[in-house]
Each structure stands twice: as structure tokens, then as C-alpha cells.
Amino acid sequence: MTTHSLLTDLLTRFEPDPDERPVVALKVEVDHHDAEQPIHRHRKGQLVLALRGGVTCEVPHARWMVPPHHAVWIPGGVPHSNRATENAHIHFLFIEPGAARMPEQCCTLAINALVRELIQHLAQTPDYPKDGPTARLAAVLLEQLPLAPVQQLHFPVPEHPKIRRLTEALEQDPADRTTAAQWASRLAMSERSLARLVQRETGLTFGRWRQQLHLVVALRQLAAGTTVQRVAGNLGYGSVTAFITMFKKALGKPPAQYFAELRQA
Length: 265
Description:
By secondary structure, the protein is of the alpha+beta class. It is built from 10 helices and 11 strands.
């Protein structure tokens, strides 16, 4: 089986929607290469938890990054695709609509040790009966999960043609340091008009929007084991210090401390 088909093949054999239990789980391990699952949707809501490595989830108008010990929440009916980094350990959790008070929109959640252990236990017993010890643990999980804090780890991707063109260029070369004024000239508009357009379509300033892309790319590469020095270079930072400053400002900690604390957790 190719790694590209791994996620799709597993979910083809593990169909969660007909299951009437409030929550079911699936464990996935990716060997050596990135694995990707094409766009699909579920009736149930889906939580994608990364225990090692990372996952990028794409939904309409945004991409969400899941570093280790975080999860992306995807409400039922939302089309999405998942891409896991090399050697990732992932758990999928499928939640029946109304079984837990989960967010109405996609978001990234920080998952504590208790919730992680409950999800892992549930994945080890996917055929658990509706009554019994595992069912009672599932009920505890559904009470605890909505308490997980939301993390701002997403990159808005609007459908506006000019912003889409800009997005594609920045994603193809995140190190591109073209200024907003230069981009405005390329897009045949004034710098002020571009600033208003980006703000209206993404809710962020041009600089903050591009920084959010850098943050998502950085988290994915760091989760895959790329060094801080190389990530800084890949993103076009003039120095490692400048990259670390950006990372710390966004997430409250420098990259080494951020991932060290995730590992310790």
C-alpha cells in the first residue's frame, strides 16, 4: 500500500457514520513519507489528534495546523483533506452530532494528558459495547473535550481571485519577501486597496496574514524534525534570531521550548 493511499484506505475500511455510538476512534501511523487523504466529509464531527509529527488539515477558505498534542476539530458535513508529516502518529475521533458541545467552526485545540489518554484507550477498543467500562470512559471524554482551549493555528485562504493568486505564490515560495506595495503593483491595484482587500477577506493585515502562513509552515516543518536554522532559511528570515522572535511572539515560547514542553507533556 502506498503512503498516499494509507489514510484513505483506512477510512474506507473504517466507516464511522453508520455507527450510532456517540464517539469512536481510529489510530493511524505514517511510515517514512508524508501521507495525504483527499477531500471528503463525514456526517459525524471529526477530531484529528497528532501525538507525534504533525497534520495539516485543509477546509474551505483555510488551512489548519496540528502540532504534537494538539487536534483540529472539523464539524460534521465540512469537506476537508488531511496531510500527515513523516512518521506521524495520529488518532481520528468521530463524534455523533449533539453528543458533545463542540465548536461550530473548525479550530485547533490544545489537548491535555487526560483527554489524550482517553482517546488512545478508545482507539484501542474500537468495537466497545454501548454499556460497560469503555462506554463510561467515552462519556467522560465527551465531557472533557469541549473544555480544550482553542489555539490560533490556521491560515485563512479566501476565494477572491487576487488573494488566491497571492496565496498560491506565497505557498509555493514562503521565503518570498515581496512587499505589499510590490504585490499591489503586480495585482494592478493600489497598496491601500490591497490592504483593505486582505483585511476584508482574511480578517488580518497583510503582514499578519503572511506571518500566519509562516507560522503554519514552520510548525509543520519543525514537527517533522527540520532544524530551527533550516526552517528560518526556508521562510526567508535574515537570521535565526528574527525567526525565533516571530515564533515566540505568536506562540509565547521559542521553538525549542515550545516543542520540548509538548514532548514532556
